[in-house]
From TrEMBL:
Pfam families for the chain: FAD_binding_3 (PF01494)
Name of the protein described by the UniProt record: Protein CbrA
Domain of life: Bacteria
Domain FAD-binding span(s) in chain numbering: 135-183
Amino acid sequence: MEHFDVAIIGLGPAGAALARQLSGKMRVIALDKKRQSGNEGFTKPCGGLLAPDAQRSFIRDGITLPVDVIANPQIFSVKTIDTAASLTRNYQRSYININRHAFDLWLKSLIPDDVRIYHDSLCRKIWHEDGKWHVIFRADGWEQQITARYLVGADGANSLVRRHLYPQHQIRKYVAIQQWFAEQHPVPFYSCIFDNDATDCYSWSISKDGFFIFGGAYPMKDGQARFEALKTKMETFHFQFGKPVKSEKCTVLFPSRWSDFVCGEKNAFLIGEAAGFISASSLEGISYALDSAEILKCVLLQGAPDINNAYRKATRKLRIKLYGKILKSRALTSAQARKWIMQSGIAHIPSGQKEQPTVTPGGLIEEH
């Protein structure tokens, strides 16, 4: 049975960044559900927008994006829609439109060869015994077992590591549903949609490489029905759908309190969405995945006596920032507060394109 310094479960942005940064400094093994290349197997359902904080992380690492990761078009504003108030506003946003699966595979390709990687693998069981973490996983067609001094859960919303460490912890979850359509809109756009009848979270649309992606985060119980009802409603706002090319679905975490940010214990650590490090106001998680990986790298290499406490302290600034996103989300998902913000016109940039009038629920016609 081989022994490693660090075992990383999951090679999304958080796990891939950590594995790359620990290369040559510690003996690392990493397990990932995705295949090494191609579009077969597991792919992460995601709108694929790279936020400024994520861009800054790449600047610090001296990394530039390859052209085959970037999607078209690049749009510099988000059309924000409040369906109940029939309000539309345009807010400037500096996102980079990317192909999320190609982005994930590219991040994995940056990991040096001294890191042992098992692609298309499944972690089956973990436990802590005799001061070591034991990991049983299936890869290359057979079941294998290793031990590690440190265990890192970078395995997303349904993290096995988080559930093992905190079996009683309950965090708010939604089902994220996306459908892809052939783009029919004359001018591509991004949008953020608030409709309290559909969800107390939010929905979105993204134009990407000739496709129009429409999705949202909905209650787990009847998410599909709410998604379909909102699609019908959005036709009033001149959204054009047609027949879906493909549909995607996954669980997404929604931190709503300070205790939803969990860092780990017993030489096990959580990074990225597995730790609850995801924005409650936008559901953006790549930035915090990269930031938490960088923080944990520094903590592991410093080798503090109480290493879990050191990581908890080192992530405090990040957790405070994310708690601010929780407070922001409460304002955005409150119908009255949101209506006041949008009616105020703060930060709104009028579009040069004349939009068609929208028929409000009361039958009135309102120009935007």
